[in-house]
Design brief:
Strand order of the largest sheet: 1-2
Helix content: 55-70%
Distance between the termini: 116 Å
Strand content: under 5%
Order of helices and strands: HEEEEHHHHHHHH
Structural class: mainly alpha
Largest sheet: 2 strands, antiparallel
């Protein structure tokens, strides 16, 4: 029986009534005259169904594409973009078109803000150049340091002010004022490389601050002041502010 099977590779089945060819030339098996085909997935075929499409997808003007006016604010641009994406997010080309128009408007807004800032600086510079000579000489004594330096010195004099308030019930602020004056002169000397100039500016800032405090403090209603806060303490707080401004912005 085995020899018979080996000599005749074509098998006949009583159940199918057809021969199953086992030849190597057959690519797909046929059963009952039907060819078995590989199944096709629905994802392989393009399908959009009832997905809504953006009607202004090819409009060149980004304002018209988003449906807003040319003087629309950034809030209106964001609102239009979010509204349209909620409607057409399922259609890829529509979403890309909306995002492209939105990004283009954002870049235009950024360039306009940058240009306005540059124009403001140029106008201020022009105003300074057209100002009288005494204004130019006065501005020559002023400089704006780095933000880190401003914050460090602001923290120092704020600490001195807090220290004075904490010890207001025990003693006056003379010690704290002396330390603040020494720090002001030190900072000015480091900037100007002249101890005499630094001392003049430091003592001048203290004097102006003390005089201004003497005039301003009595105008403050007593009901808003703490009972332990004396006139000397409040005047010293004003002096700290002038010492900070003198050692930070004067040169």
């Amino acid at each position: 029986m085995a020899a018979l099977l080996l000599s005749n590779p074509s098998l006949s089945s009583p159940f199918l009534g057809q021969k199953l060819s086992m030849s190597g030339n057959s690519k797909r098996p046929t059963v009952c005259g039907l060819t078995c085909r590989s199944p096709r997935c629905a994802v392989d075929t393009p399908y959009e169904g009832n997905v809504p499409k953006f009607s202004r997808i090819n409009v060149w003007d980004p304002y018209k594409r988003l449906g807003i006016s040319h003087d629309a604010s950034e809030e209106e641009i964001w609102g239009s973009r979010n509204f349209l994406l909620d409607q057409y997010a399922m259609h890829e080309r529509s979403a890309e078109s909306i995002e492209a128009a939105f990004e283009k408007l954002l870049m235009t807004s950024f360039r306009n803000r940058k240009k306005s800032t540059i124009n403001l600086k140029s106008r201020l510079k022009k105003k300074v150049e057209e100002s009288p000579p005494w204004v130019k000489n006065l501005l020559g004594f002023v400089e704006v340091p780095a933000t880190v330096i401003i914050l460090r010195r602001l923290f120092l004099f704020a600490f001195m002010a807090g220290w004075s308030i904490m010890n207001s019930a025990e003693s006056g602020p003379a010690f704290q004022v002396a330390i603040s004056l020494a720090a002001c002169i030190y900072f000015l000397n480091d900037k100007t490389k002249s101890l005499a100039r630094a001392s003049i500016i430091g003592f001048g800032s203290l004097l102006v601050g003390w005089v201004c405090g003497s005039f301003l403090v009595p105008m403050i209603p007593s009901v808003v002041l703490h009972p332990t806060w004396t006139l000397e303490l409040l005047t010293s707080l004003v002096a700290y502010a002038f010492l900070f401004l003198g050692c930070t912005f004067l040169k």
